[in-house]
Please model this.
Amino acid sequence: MSNKKIFILLPDGVGLRNFAFTDFYSKGKATGMDLIFWNNTPFDLAKIGYKELRLKQNRSSLFLEVLKNARKEIELNCNIRKSKDTVYDSYRFPFSYSTFKSSTKSYIIRFLIQLFDSERGLKIVRDLIKKTERKTNFYSESYALLKEQKPALVFCTNQRISLAIAPLLAAQDLKIPTATFIFSWDNLPKGTMVVETDYYFVWSAHMKKELLYYYPYIKENQIVVTGTPQFENHFQLNNIIDREIFFNQNGLDIKKKYICYSGDDVTTSPYDPDYLLDLIKAVRKLNKKGKPLGIIFRRCPVDFSPRFNSVLEENQDIVVAIEPRWDKVGEGWNTILPTKEDSILQFNIIAHTELVVNLGSSMVFDYVSHKKPCAYMNYNPEKKDPNWSVERIYNYIHFRFIPDNAVVWLNSPNEIADKIEIMLSDGAQKVVENAQEWFEKINQHPAQEASKRIWEAIDQICKKGLC
Model:
């Protein structure tokens, strides 16, 4: 491999956690690669010693967003017809008619859906997206930069951002190999694929099967199973902070054992404050039985709502909020950026708590990396929005592969205390073993070697004579 210049395309901030704040960069450098982040985030990677080139595009065109949304809706329709399963309807967002602009956009999307609602029509929309992007100034600028820089490969850090389409098309038109990483364990059934590349890096053999099922135009030899770097930090024991120091830093009671309540975003779990309050009541009950317990509340990093304020203020003797260390640089969820400090903070919250409670979060895998159990809230609050239910959440495709008893199911507020008590005993060991089985199905193991596998795959791609 003569050309060792690799462009890491960061179309938005969600890729920072996996590819800038893990050992991914250092492991790539150790192989002799010349790594350059092609950076469209507000984060200045040069400050932490990384090479970067800035992308000069802030937003996609309105027409591209229309086509992207139409593509998603048509994909979901195709999935329903293929599987005869209406669960894919739950991945849709409602059309907006609140302004003239949003109404016009919604009507055009619905027209395109009606016009192209078939596998053949879907291909027409995909081709139209490419044709449209090749006519943009952004494509021309990306083409000129790539022609000058001549990287060996362009690796996109996630598959769902429309701003990545033009740079990747430019690379392909210059015969530069391209790859993308499937960002999250639940992404593929949702119709979130926006980019099309030469190679697709996935978490597991399970995700590979999903990719082949949902995107039949992708061939098996284009898919590389690597795992995800997002769990690697949990195996870096040098990041652990002494318990007494961590407790002092965060106002925790050294005499207590702590449970983590990990919050969800407001769309996924609109009743999170109710669930947190039910957990608080259960902990009070256990405290009366002589078990000194407290709760650490870690909110979803993109949730800045005040919805937890009253619960936290009224229960300061039980719950301590430790805020995620993410940087908010804009109003959109994708302008809230992770930090390296937050990865270390999350690691230490897990290290210094006994278990985690949440509604259907992937934190189950973070905790099982530390051999600790997870409990899922599994009941509907009394005052429930008729358009939301816990049954709908756990009917999502990615929850259909949970091994029996891989989490503790909290099926009512009344049973939380008893089940937490069991989780604090040796009785949780089987749950941890089952969660580990689930983790190994979802993510290639050893989990701490994901970056190494990605770089090995990149090296092999380049050795095929494409570079």
The chain has three domains: 5-60+136-228+447-466, 62-132, 238-442.
